[in-house]
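Input/output pair, single chain:
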Amino acid sequence: MNNSQDGYCFSFPAVSGMQAGKPFYIATCPLSTIPKIFVFDEDEVPPELRAQRTLNKSRIPEMVRYLIENPKDYVFSALTVSVASTVTFTESGISGLGTLSVPMDAQILINDGQHRRAAIEAALKEKPELGHDNIAVLFFVDEGLERSQQMFADLNKYAIKPSPSLGALYDLRDESSELARYQAKHIKPFVGFTEMEKSSISSKSSKLFTLSSLKQANRALLGKGMKEGFSEEEKILSNEYWQTVFQATPEWQMILNKELSPSQFRQEYIHAHGVGLHALGSLGCALLTAKPNDWKEAIKQLKNVDWRKSNPQWAQRSMLHGRLSKASTNIMLTTNALKMALGLALTPDERTLENKHITEAEA
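Output:
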C-alpha cells in the first residue's frame, strides 16, 4: 500500500500490455489481499447493474476443499477485473515492467473469477498461511459497466468445459479416473477399445466405451460415491471382475478376435454401450455382496443373456422409443434383468420399479 497524490493506493508488481488498442496490466497479488480488494456483494446490486453472474454458493465448498487439501499442488487461474478509476503504472526501467498503483477507493468489478475469490476468502479462514501465496490478476482500466458486462459475456461465451472423459484422462488426483485409465491400458476388453477424450462415440468409431463410462461403471461396481476413493484391494477386485465378465461375454471376445467389428457391435448390442457397462457394474456390486466366494462361477451365466437390441426384453428397459437411454431408471431396469438372469434377489426399490415396469408393459 502506497500513499499517492490522490490518496492511498494498492501497489502490485505488474506487466503492462495493449489489447484491442487499450492498456491492460497483469499483476501479482497475495491471496491475503484478494478478499479485501475485490469485494463481491451480489445482494446489494441488481443483475442489470452487475458485471458478474450470481454467485453459485454450492460450488464454493469443493473449491475450498481443493485449496485446503492441496496447499503445495493447487492451480488457480488469473482473476480478470475492471477498474472504474485511473491507475498509475510506474516502469522500473525495463519496458513493460513496473508497479501498478490502484486507488483504494476505486470501484473494481470482477469479470471472471468471483467463485475463485469467494473460495480464497473461505480457505484463508481455515488455512491462513495460504495468504502468503500469490495469484495473477488481469486489470482492465476505466471500462465502465456496459463494457464490463460485455467482457463477462465474451469471456464466458467461448469457454468450453472439457468432456468428462478428457477430465478423467488428465485428473491425476481422482482415484476412479486413475483406475479407469489403468484398465483402459491393461484390462480386456478395454485395451484399445476405450475412447479416452470424447464422451460419445460415433457409429463408425473403432472404440466401444468412453473413459467416463468406465469410471462410472467402476463406481457402481464398488458402491462408491463421487468423492470416495478406492483401496488397493478394491482396485484388484475391479480388475478381476471385468476380466471375468470378459470371459463370460462372447461378443466382447469376438471383437478382440476380429470376428465382429466395433461398429456392428455397437449397432446391434446393448453391452457395447454405457448403459450396459453401468448395469454390469451394478450387477457386480450385488453379486460380490451376495456371493463373495463364488461370484466368478455365478458370472458365467452371463453367456446366456441375449444382449441384442432386437430382444423384446430390453424394450422400455434399456431402450426408450427405439433408442438407448442412460437414465438412472433405465440403468436400474437393465440391472434388474441381469440380476434375475443370475438368480439374484432384487432390493425393495428394484422390485417396486420392476413391478411398475411389468404393469406398464402389460397395459
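The chain has two domains: 2-157, 164-362. DSSP finds 14 helices and twelve strands in the chain.
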